[in-house]
Task: inverse folding
């Protein structure tokens, strides 16, 4: 029996999909390995057009009972959650009966930071008897590897900015804040918190346009996982839109923690980076810890 | 000889004034103590209307030779720099001949963080033979004291948010980043870097309007001096506009480090806070260090 056949005998994988192109990349990777995938796009977060050509079942955030039933009926034992889910308001949760039982636990999670929330959701999934896996466990090729991804390489100045950025994220990580920072000329220009990476990059573009940042072409977006982050749930990710945002912000490049950052649409990302002359690099994760 | 007369015999104080109402508050405090003040509003940062009724001399950022000459001619020995100066582009500096001599030093400062820049400017002033003082040294009443300033008081939840905010600023301080953070329900919503407190508050208001922040009425703006900050130059400050921004962001209150935060227009600030039902509190600075 070949390895490929062994893989194909794994039970189907259930994927709960938030926004962005990452869930589809991972679904394709898993399917290419011969494993069946059940897609559960989240209403209000996933884009309907993305799922038009695929078998799927829409669910609301909080309707985990529906996911659990369908997954069990299909012999699933593993569940992956992937894609962006902007921190929801409680009214956006439409709990089903099963979820209602665990809702107090989820509601409690909402009072803490993001890590706290995500870990709690993981616990809910496991309380239903499923294994809760990280996307990188079912499709390891989605992780950024060490080294540059496109043609451009960081300068000495960029390397100093990267190091400061990773240090900063290491220091701020215990506070369960964002995973990204923009550093230019050894000066922290922007720190991501609730607004997300795209909005932070837009802010830097605006600061630059208004003349409050000098030295065009300088600066690095640095992303890293939080020290305490549940790596099964919400690894930092980059995709073509990250590169476009970095280009609009006038940055020289993007540096991420290798082995713990997920990349969506790598070919399009590299093409965008090369077109913009922006470097993309995976750094040993140790330097941020 | 009375104490007031002794004070009035001090040589005039030179004040280089950036934007905002703080320089004028301080100038009035110093004048009320019987000390003459020479005002040097910075073109592009200070508002002409604010100086209409006062003796003053406009200068460009970098024209320190002019300031030094006039200050010396008037017998000044002490210089205070106060008010907001958005980090300038190099082209905004219009150096005079005297400043040109020290410009390489200033240019070098631009490559580091804000603290680095400010410390270097202080060194330039001292290299001209002046004493470089903090505004709090000439008008100690501008510092926020411990305790609440208006009628509203923080709840237990607000106190937990405040503690987290001060801890975060303590951890991020060594990186020479901003001095402010917004925390709600033990969740860091926004971190200030190059954009300044007002823009950060506007971002929180926007996140709230778009439904990305739940729990209206919750959240605290926390400000503290950076651990390494040169306290003569750029203490964190609050004024009526801070309260207005916090109200628009739906926050419950504003917490600052007592004894190392400067308050502009305290009466208007307290009136605005009471009108908005927002608490304003000075906390022992130790908790952020």
Result:
């Amino acid at each position: 029996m070949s390895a490929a056949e062994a893989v194909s005998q794994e039970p189907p994988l259930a994927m709960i999909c938030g926004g962005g192109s990452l869930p589809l990349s991972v679904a394709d990777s898993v399917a290419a390995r011969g494993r069946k995938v059940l897609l559960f796009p989240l209403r209000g977060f996933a884009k309907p057009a993305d799922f038009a050509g695929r078998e799927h079942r829409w669910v609301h955030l909080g309707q985990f009972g529906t996911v659990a039933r369908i997954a069990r009926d299909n012999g699933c034992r593993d569940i992956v959650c992937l894609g962006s889910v902007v921190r929801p308001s409680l009214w956006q949760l439409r709990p089903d009966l099963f979820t209602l039982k665990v809702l107090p636990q989820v509601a409690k999670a909402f009072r803490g930071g993001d890590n706290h929330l995500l870990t709690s959701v993981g616990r809910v999934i496991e309380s239903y008897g499923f294994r809760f896996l990280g996307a990188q466990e079912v499709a390891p090729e989605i992780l950024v590897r060490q080294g540059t991804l496109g043609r451009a390489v960081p300068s000495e100045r960029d390397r100093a900015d990267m190091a400061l950025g990773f240090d900063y994220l290491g220091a701020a990580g215990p506070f369960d804040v964002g995973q990204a920072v923009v550093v230019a000329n050894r000066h922290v220009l922007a720190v991501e918190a609730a607004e997300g990476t795209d909005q932070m990059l837009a802010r830097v573009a605006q600061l630059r346009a208004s003349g409050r940042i000098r030295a065009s072409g300088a600066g690095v977006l640095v992303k890293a996982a939080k020290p305490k982050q549940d790596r099964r749930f919400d690894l930092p990710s980059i995709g073509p839109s990250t590169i476009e945002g970095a280009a609009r912000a006038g940055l020289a490049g993007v540096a991420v923690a290798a082995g713990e950052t997920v990349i969506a649409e790598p070919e399009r990302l590299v093409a965008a980076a090369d077109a913009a002359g922006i470097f993309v690099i995976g750094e040993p994760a140790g330097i941020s810890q």
